[in-house]
Amino acid sequence: MNFTEKARKHIDSCRFCWMCRHICPIGNATGQERNNARARALCLSLVMRGAEKPEAVAENVYECALCSACVKECATGWDPVYFILEARKELATEGKLPSYIEKMLDNYEKSGCVYSAAEENVSLTEAKKRHSIKTDTLFLLSHAAIYRDCADTVKSIELLEKTGIKFTVAENEPSSGADIRFLIGDTGETQEAARNCAKLLNEYKTVIFLNPDDAEIVVREYKEWGTEVNAKLVTFTSFIAANLDKLKVKNKGVAIAPQDPFALGRELNETEPLRKIAAAAGKVTEMLNNRKDTFIAGSAIMAEYMPEVMKAVALRRFGDAAAAGAEVMLTCSPSEHAVVKDVAFDGVKALSVAELLLE
Ligand code: SF4
Ligand code: SF4
């Protein structure tokens, strides 16, 4: 693997450090030493020094959620997400990817979507048809929402309709690049996906992102790649929070724990709209590790190749919600909702923003 000087420095700094080992949601879910930032760095340092083959560490490289919990925790400013993304790019370049990642890339090449058997649900097609006419506002759903959290995506469209805004949903939505970046890092393919998506976004005055992962990549990465987006960019959560008065929400007093997706809590520093929504429908109760300290509750793309670990990740987050006395864990990420919706936990139910407000 041809790591850059910067990645080498970060790998060598992390490989003997234990300071963030307690913070990795994957390591906490599996209980395995291999699943923390330090272990990933140690594996990659062995490859860097020629003591191990790249394919021997490839699976470990894909067991990282890129959630940046370790980056936030690091007092000395080292960045495991940086070198993990570079390792994924190198594995792709060298043709040493795990077979399940190859399969997702094949899907992407054939259909523009990394998810297998990616057929859209009829109810979603119907909901999209209601918004096929061009308006000033695009509602960008994301492939995770369309293909892995379909029923809830229909509800999100219904909720947006209730605000009275006129909006468009693209018939064939392109990837924002977030999923392909997750798989192979900052490559030419990822930047091409970004340019392709930007063409669509620039046809509108406003873009509302259902998936925080899309909002994050467009706001933070597109500029780095020289891809300009001139539309006003708004998350679904912040749009709904700003329009609560139109939704006539009844407060039932239920204890609600907001689950901050890391893309909002850490990367975009957007945490209060979700709490405003929760406060309108019930009473907010905070989980341990909230806002910028959040832990993931799941990841749709990782559930494709490590579903049991994602289930364990979700259960731990349900446990945090229960410990905070919550009856509801409120999610605003289709990628997380796609996982938590299928996990049962006594006493706490997971609801999306649309489920909570339409209930
Ligand atoms: S990110 Fe910081 S705290 Fe974590 S292993 Fe690296 S140097 Fe240590
Ligand atoms: S980015 Fe997240 S999943 Fe990856 S090593 Fe850091 S804490 Fe663990």
Key phrases:
359 residues, alpha/beta, Rossmann fold, 3 domains, 4-stranded parallel β-sheet, 3-stranded parallel β-sheet, 7 strands, 52% helix, binds iron/sulfur cluster
Topology:
Layout: H1 5-14, H2 25-30, H3 37-48, H4 54-62, H5 69-73, H6 80-93, H7 99-111, H8 122-129, E1 137-140, H9 143-148, H10 150-162, H11 178-184, H12 188-201, E2 206-209, H13 212-221, E3 232-235, H14 236-242, E4 254-259, H15 262-268, H16 272-281, E5 282-284, H17 300-303, H18 307-323, E6 328-331, H19 334-340, E7 349-352, H20 353-358
Parallel strand pairs: 1-2, 2-3, 4-5, 4-6, 6-7
Helix pairs in contact: 1-3, 1-6, 3-4, 3-6, 4-6, 6-11, 8-10, 11-12, 13-15, 14-16
The structure holds iron/sulfur cluster (SF4) (2 copies).
One iron/sulfur cluster (SF4) is lined by residues 13-14, 17, 19-20, 37-38, 70, 73-74, 76, 78, 80.
What is this entry, summarized?
The protein has 359 residues and is an alpha/beta fold. The chain contains 20 helices and 7 strands. The protein has helices at residues 5-14, 25-30, 37-48, 54-62, 69-73, 80-93, 99-111, 122-129, 143-148, 150-162, 178-184, 188-201, 212-221, 236-242, 262-268, 272-281, 300-303, 307-323, 334-340, 353-358; strands at residues 137-140, 206-209, 232-235, 254-259, 282-284, 328-331, 349-352.
